[in-house]
UniProtKB/TrEMBL annotation:
Alphabetized Gene3D superfamilies for the sequence: Farnesyl Diphosphate Synthase (1.10.600.10)
Keywords tagged on the record: Isoprene biosynthesis, Magnesium, Metal-binding, Transferase
Record keyword Transferase present: yes
Keyword Metal-binding: yes
GO BP: isoprenoid biosynthetic process
GO molecular function terms attached to this record: metal ion binding; prenyltransferase activity
Cross-referenced InterPro entries: Isoprenoid_synthase_dom_sf, Polyprenyl_synt, Polyprenyl_synt_CS
Record protein name field: Polyprenyl synthetase family protein
Required cofactor names: Mg(2+)
Pfam families: polyprenyl_synt
């Protein structure tokens, strides 16, 4: 755990510095409540670990790692507004705490701070811009053209969740100055991890206790949101099996890269296995 904690601490320190630099004070307080209220920090950890696995140093990737976490948090603010969810990570969501207007402004502020961190590298800017297009298309299709089959659900999951995971891994590879083949391979790995993560989320929403989950359960059914369980006739157990298949495919993609740091690789492998058994 010490290995991961050092990397999370690097991200946390840079995240706090980025938030502290925000002006005016009111916006900084709102962003602080969104970003520093907790969270798994999975995406920034992937960015750092991929960079290390490919021969880079954690410090090489920390700005990109923080940037992708800011983008992720910006998307969560909007998700909670759309879903009318007043709870996030066991605390009030941004719109519930500050109102819709300030929450939207906070989301915009997060994106602005994120792109300032990506601006040093044209490839990073392109990767994140493409991910945000995918994310936006996913959000739009969920609202107005909901999937009616497992295949359509998978397209949505890749856009809505997989895209940011892919970007997180590709940013780590860019920070390590990897070649195009390697960037694509780690992107495939992370996208599949993200899809498996979303599938498991759907199962937890249908089956978990809200106190354990840290947010309201049953939201997918209540909001008529197209979760894997809602769209298909799969049982939660069968949905979990689909998630495991994505996890296995992620591990296969990861096995194709040339690795410089075996410890970082092991943690990336562990992540692909963990996302399908997590309880929150």
């Amino acid at each position: 755990m010490e290995y991961l904690e050092r990397r999370r601490s690097l991200v946390a320190e840079r995240l706090e510095a980025a938030v502290d630099a925000v002006e005016p004070d009111a916006l900084r307080e709102q962003i602080d409540s969104v970003v520093l209220a907790g969270g798994k920090r999975v995406r920034p950890t992937v960015t750092v670990l991929v960079c290390e696995a490919l021969g880079g140093e954690p410090e090489d990737a920390v700005d990109f790692a923080v940037g992708i976490e800011l983008v992720h948090n910006a998307s969560l603010v909007i998700d909670d507004i759309i879903d009318e969810s007043d709870l996030r990570r066991g605390s009030e969501s941004a719109w519930a705490a500050f109102g819709h207007g300030p929450a939207i402004i906070a989301s915009d502020g997060l994106l602005g701070e994120a792109f300032a961190l990506f601006s040093s590298d044209e490839r990073a800017m392109q990767v994140v811009a493409e991910a945000m297009v995918e994310l936006g298309e996913g959000e739009a299709s969920e609202l107005v053209e909901q999937p009616a089959s497992e295949e359509e659900y998978m397209t949505l999951a890749r856009r809505k969740t997989g895209a940011l995971f892919r970007a997180a891994a590709e940013l780590g590879a860019i920070a390590a100055d990897a070649d195009a083949y390697t960037i694509e391979a780690v992107g495939d790995y992370a996208e599949r991890v993200g899809v498996a993560f979303q599938m498991r989320d759907d199962v937890l929403d249908a089956t978990a206790d809200p106190e354990t989950l840290g947010k309201p359960a049953g939201q997918d059914a209540a909001m008529e949101r197209p979760s894997l369980v809602e769209v298909t006739d799969l049982t939660p157990e069968e949905a979990n099996e689909r998630a495991r298949e994505e996890s296995d495919a992620a591990l296969e993609a990861l096995s194709t890269i040339d690795v410089a740091d075996e410890a970082a690789l092991e943690y990336l492998e562990d992540l692909a296995k963990f996302v399908v058994v997590r309880e929150r």
